[in-house]
From TrEMBL:
The keyword Isomerase applies. SUPFAM superfamilies: Xylose isomerase-like. It comes from Paenibacillus mellifer. The keyword Isomerase applies. This is Sugar phosphate isomerase/epimerase. Keywords: Isomerase. InterPro entries: IolE/XylAMocC-like, Xyl_isomerase-like_sf, Xyl_isomerase-like_TIM-brl. Pfam families: AP_endonuc_2 (PF01261). Residues 23-246 form the Xylose isomerase-like TIM barrel domain. It comes from the Bacteria. One of its GO terms (molecular function) is isomerase activity.
């Protein structure tokens, strides 16, 4: 059954102020799991304790590409200790976006080490992996074609696929079976064409169709994320959870 998680980057300012209390509020709102984007100086034991207290599942951790190059074993050990299953490459800096062949080889190395430790490597897209090309195809597709499925799974950010002008439903269908994680988010295009992420149900993305397709494809976690919040981020994630609950009440194999 598909479960609902939160990418904690959404509430980063609150985590900076009070890591433990923020996780308590996330759990109170009904999120079942969290995807970390840093641990805010907490030790393994401190993270273990707040996860035990709240009942939250550590879905995985967004871990920068360069951090994996420099300290892969350290990151693997920390994630194993807190019960996190997925190590996710979240973003590539602009200076890295013209050397796809090297990145693909690094992903193979990261994926092999994750596999050895019983963890799973994923790659999380933005729009640039779909608008930039490598060997005649979108760079994202080249990555998944050249890194074996056994070494790299898909975390599809459906919102950024749509913003890039492509169809998230087609991408879900293409990578079904290799797709444990989907970022479920909404946005509007501002007057200048730039994106602004908003609470679920308040934007232009076909999030109901994406949720339906992800659940049908056997996605393990639909992960709510809002890159920037006009409101207080805790209010924003509450609004999004209210939309999720209304969606779940309409049926579907969704655990909320």
């Amino acid at each position: 059954m598909t479960q609902i998680g939160l990418q904690l980057y959404t509430v980063r300012d609150h985590l900076e102020q009070d890591f433990e209390e923020t996780l308590r509020k996330v759990a109170e709102l009904g999120y079942k799991g969290v995807e970390f984007a840093g641990f805010y100086g907490r030790s393994v034991e401190q993270v273990q304790e707040i996860l035990r207290e709240t009942g939250l599942t550590a879905i995985g951790a967004h871990t920068p590409y360069n951090r994996l190059k420099e300290a892969l074993d350290e990151e693997l050990a920390f994630n194993k200790a807190i019960g996190s299953r997925y190590i996710i490459v979240p973003y590539l800096a602009e200076e890295d976006r013209d050397r796809w062949s090297e990145i693909i080889e690094d992903l193979k190395i990261f994926g092999e080490r994750c596999k050895e430790e019983g963890l799973v490597l994923c790659y999380h897209n933005h729009d640039f992996e779909l608008t930039l090309q490598h060997e005649g195809k979108p760079a994202l597709d080249a990555i998944y074609e050249q890194v074996p499925e056994s070494l790299l799974q898909v975390e599809l950010d459906s919102c950024w696929v749509a913003f890039a002008g492509l169809d998230p439903l087609e991408y879900i269908a293409t990578y079904q079976g290799r797709l444990p994680l989907v970022h479920w988010k909404d946005l509007v295009k501002k007057a200048d064409g730039s994106p602004e992420t908003v609470e679920l149900g308040r934007g232009e993305i076909a999030i109901t169709d994406i949720g339906d397709a992800a659940i049908a494809a056997g996605v393990k976690w639909l992960i709510v994320e809002q890159d920037y919040c006009a409101a207080d981020p805790l209010d924003s994630i509450q609004t999004s959870m209210e939309w999720v609950r209304a969606y779940a009440e309409k049926g579907g194999n969704l655990h909320v």
